[in-house]
Amino acid sequence: MEVEQILHMNGGEGENSYANNSLTQKEAIVKAKPLLEQSLNDLYCNGFPDCITVADMGCSSGPNALLPTWEAIDSLDKICNRLNRKPPVLHSFLNDLPGSDFNTVFKSLPSFYERLRTEKGHEFGSCFVAAAPGSFHARLFPPNFLDFVYSSNALHWLSQMPKEPMSEFDIHRAYFDQFKSDFSAFLKFRSEELKCGGRMILTLLYNDSFHATSPGEPALLVIKDMISEGLIEESKLKSSNFPIYAPYVDEVKQVIEREGSFDIHQLETFHVSWLEGFVENDNEGLDKYARGKYVTRHVRAVGESLLSSICGDDAIVEEIYRRFAIKVTDEILEKGRGAFANLLISLVKKL
How many angstroms separate the Cα of 165 from the Cα of each of 10, 171, 178, 224? Predict the structure, then answer.
């Protein structure tokens, strides 16, 4: 599977768009803000630069795409007010795969700049936003170009599906090996692009099966049911795994330490409910599966491009998501489960 050519969040602003179904990802960005502010404070106070260049790796589309940039502005504004210094110019690069809906993002820039003028006035320095399309598993910027790298809900995506494992026992090893290769490459290339002492804030899904659940579990059960009913070819089952790996915390630490370019400054974990942002109205109160449909729209906004490439039939895709809403309600939400486990890491480039 050519992930880079296929993967993209659902664009536009429709019912199943990422723009309207990304509140769980927004909550992860919000929870990372205190560590972001602390990291920017350390970076800024080490030399008081006139311009700070940041890159958001895997920014996706919709309102979340500009949220880290806004939080960087807000953090720097607070820092400089406290120090009684003029805020620096902020140069923010938004990175994602070429298939991402950059058009919707840049249509929102006028309102973003208007908000900046309204809330910050002339107190904050200039902010310039640009796109940097491409895979973050490769080089994206010149050497010693960036001051700060941010990435939220992106690094658990693999650059490609792992090689076909010989047995069920080998599946975890195959996925971890691919993650190890991808994450090592990410660290290596970012270390080349960051200036000495540059910093990174990374948030990714991690493996915490005791407290959290992957939406892939009910999805796989739905596909198996449809195969047994003759609605999907059995050959589709092997290709229905997504190129996602949620590593264990120790696996992430191991890769960082072995790659050797960064020191781990801080590491935290937190959980975000699948139902983040869900508000049950009077009509939905009569629908047992309203919560499941809400989760389904969020899952669909992220994974529909891949599922469509596997199934190749819009009617089959619709039926999978219809059944998914029922399955996720009955077998997960009704049992009080359903949360994403997030790993938050602050890294500093070694001198």
Answer: 30, 6, 12, 20
- In the sheet that holds 127-131, the strands lie side by side as 127-131, 89-95, 51-57, 146-152, 194-205, 339-349, 262-273
Q: How many CB atoms lie within 10 A of CB 128?
A: 11
**Tokens found for residue 55:** 């890159």
Alpha-carbon Rg of the chain, whole angstroms?
A: 21
Residue for token pair 């992860």: 28
Mean pLDDT of the 320-347 span:
90
Q: What is the pTM of this model?
A: 0.90
Share of the chain above pLDDT 70, in %: 91
Distance from C-alpha of 55 to C-alpha of 235, rounded to nearest angstrom:
40
DSSP E strand boundaries for 58-193: 89-95, 127-131, 146-152
| CA separation, residue 74 to residues 50, 60, 81, 229 (Å) | 16, 21, 11, 54
Question: Distance of CA 196 to CAs 147, 150, 351, Å?
Answer: 8, 16, 6
- Whether the CB-CB separation of 349 and 42 falls below 8 Å is answered with no
pLDDT value of position 302: 83
Taking 70 as the threshold, does the pLDDT of residue 303 lie above it?
Answer: yes
Which of 246, 243, 217 lies closest to 328 in space, CA to CA?
217
Alpha-carbon span 158 to 176, nearest angstrom: 10
* Token pair of 327 as six digits: 């399955």
Q: Two tokens at 210?
A: 């005791």
What 3-state DSSP class applies to 347? strand
Residue 339 or residue 216, greater confidence:
339
pLDDT, tens digit, for every residue of 220-238? Answer: 788 888 888 888 877 666 6
Within 13 Å, how many C-alpha atoms sit on residue 280's CB side? 10
Bridge-partner residues for 146, per DSSP?
Answer: 194
Estimate to the nearest angstrom the gap between the alpha carbon of 308 and the chain centroid.
Answer: 20
- The conformational region for residue 260 under phi > 0 = left, psi -120 to 50 = alpha, else beta, is left
Residue 114 pLDDT > 70: yes
